[in-house]
Amino acid sequence: RKFIVNMLYRVCQRRLKNVSKTRKILSAQLKTTTTICRNVGYNPIRCFSQSPVVLDELWNNKNTPVTETIPKIKGNLTLEQLQKLGESGDIDTVIMAFTCHNGKLMGKRYGVDFFIEEGIKGSHACSYLLTVDVEMNTIDGFDLTSWDKGYGDFHMVPDMGTLRVATWLDRTAIVLCDLDDNKNHKPITVGPRSILKAQLEKGKKYGFTSMGASELEYYMYQTSYEDAAKSEYLESSIKPFGYYLGDYNLLQGTREEPLNAEVRRHLSWCGVPIENSKGEYGFGQHELNVKYTNLLDMGDRHVIYKQCFKEIAQKMGFSVTFMAKAHSDQCGSSCHVHMSLWKDGKNAFVGDEDFHGVKCSKAFQNFLGGWIKNTPELMVFLAPNINSYKRYVDASFAPTKLAWSLDNRSAAFRVIGEGNSFRIECRLPGADMNPYLGFAGLLAAGLDGIENEVECPPPVIGDVYRGEYDTVPRTLRDANNRFKESEFARRSFGEDVVKHYSHFLDNEVKEFEKVVTNWERKRYFEQI
After folding, report:
1. 182, 152 in Cβ contact below 8 A?
2. CA-to-CA distance for 154 and 128, rounded, in angstroms?
3. What is the mean pLDDT of each run of 10 residues along the chain (528 residues)?
């Protein structure tokens, strides 16, 4: 306390005209002052040793790191480790979480002792969480639950292999959960994580381990979430980090580094290994990549990544969006998915066959053929929102044609790498993709190609945008109609999954079509 008072005194000598009163004022208000600092993520000892800092700047907390020191506790945890950390007071809260359709984390916070005593057995949550829209409005007509069925509970079952320290939160751990039926304790088949796990089991029947990585892009703003909401998200009211196109630009990246660096550190500390981050094409747009792994772990890393990013941005007074198309005059944000199948510890796409100049296996050819054939019927898992389809613009680095090519960013499917890094990059998904559903859809499409020996067309050389190839669906209505009518989707996921998600998306389309937009008012208010 004495050290902090002295540091505050040094700073406030420059702020108070009556210096003789400084020590008395600071001593009386020290507790309140340090509480403010901690609430906005400052280390009081460090921040008050740097001058000049004033409390209104701290309260606005711009460019404020969430933590000033490397945490003592990092990475994934065993139950035994959690118990010891609970006893020492280093962890006092455990979050149990799962994703809704939109990929948002939902769940509960437990006291660590009660989690160890009871929470590890599971917990209840209202089943309506898999039947509401993104704004939590209930939607009638689902088989899973409804007003007629009373909106009972399902069971959140923690996957203890996902337990980790949430280093960006105070004394908190987080564990991801599967969803089981509350009565028979079988998996909820329409749960996003359950859908991916079912496809992974199909892959195992062929002897494959499915590996991959997702590359998330996002826009960052100096405006807080609260202020953005107050302005109704008007573009004129939200200020991006950048003011010119900054793809790979390190100077522009430095402006964005206060937020990006914090996220990289905390993801690394919580057991999500980071590869790199880089500027992207839009104003304040960036990309941060995590290391590839098996698809289930990758889905878990993906949802932790987004939650971590949003919560750190919120603490620092900033905001970040993973909308597929945040601005009509700028590039969209993608989530390119890199995928390969492995068998016996080796990449099963590698082979000796010469396929149009590509050395590969038959499994690679059929898997890629399955992607090209089946993805139009699964676009709702890759582009799940109204906004998603505004990203597909020619010559924008977002694909519009269903073709493949070698290291060609105008193609929907880009083949890259060699040896064990040989893989296919699917460029169709947007940053708004739920990773469990997106990975499940792509894996199902590829495995169907292998099972039915789907022939892959030859690669495209040159600008795919200018070629005559099948196009991606251009609206959510179109994509959902293809999904509803797809025999492949029913065969791969089951009637219940197709019925559930198509109904959910039908509602989204209907809600959008009721809305009068600013575009309409600007265009028609006076002119017609």
Report:
1. yes
2. 9
3. 56 49 54 54 45 39 56 85 94 97 96 96 95 94 93 96 96 97 94 98 96 97 95 91 89 92 96 95 94 97 98 96 95 97 96 95 97 97 97 94 94 95 97 98 98 96 93 96 97 97 97 93 92
Contact 361, 351 (CB under 8 A): yes
User: Are 180 and 318 spatial neighbours (Cβ–Cβ below 8 Å)?
Assistant: no
- Report yes or no: 344 and 357 within 8 Å, Cβ to Cβ: no
> How high is the pLDDT of residue 335?
97
Q: Tell me the C-alpha distance between 49 and 9, whole Å.
A: 10
DSSP code at position 455: P
Nearest Cα neighbor of 428 from 463, 467, 471 is: 471
In angstroms, the CA 437 to CA 434 distance is 6
Please give the radius of gyration of the chain, using alpha carbons only, rounded to the nearest integer: 25
Q: Which two tokens stand for residue 252?
A: 């522009």
pLDDT at residue number 33:
58
Structure-derived torsion over alpha carbons of residues 189, 191, 192, 193, reported in degrees to the nearest 10: -80
Question: 28 — phi, psi (to 5°)?
Answer: -70, -35
Helix (H, G, I), strand (E, B) or coil at 361: coil
> By the 8 A CB rule, do 379 and 505 touch?
no
Burial of 51 (0-12, 13-18, 19+ CB in 10 A): middle
DSSP result, 15-73: T-S-GGGHHHHHHHHHHHHHHHHHHTT--HHHHTTSS---HHHHHHTTT--S-SS--SS
Contact yes or no for 77/173 (Cβ under 8 A): yes
d(CA 220, CA 197): 32
Cα torsion angle, 254, 260, 266, 269, sign:
negative
Residue 295: CA count within 13 A, CB half-sphere: 33
The token pair at 359 is: 């050395």
Q: Which long-range contacts (CB under 8 A, 24 or more apart) does 144-153 make?
A: 144/188, 144/190, 144/500, 151/126, 151/127, 152/126, 152/127, 152/182, 153/124, 153/125, 153/126, 153/127, 153/182
The pTM assigned to this predicted structure is: 0.88
SS (H, E, C) 196-261: HHHHHHHHHHCCCEEEEEEEEEEEEECCCHHHHHHCCCCHHHCCECCCCCCCCCHHHHHHHHHHHH
Nearest Cα neighbor of 210 from 441, 509, 428, 526 is: 441
**Residue 199, both tokens:** 């496809």
94 strand-pairing partners = 110, 173
Structure tokens at 230: 């107050």
d(CA 411, CA 196): 26
CA distances from 90 to 38, 84, 86, 93 (A): 16, 9, 6, 9
3-class DSSP state for residue 107? strand
Cα(324)–Cα(219) distance, rounded to whole angstroms?
10
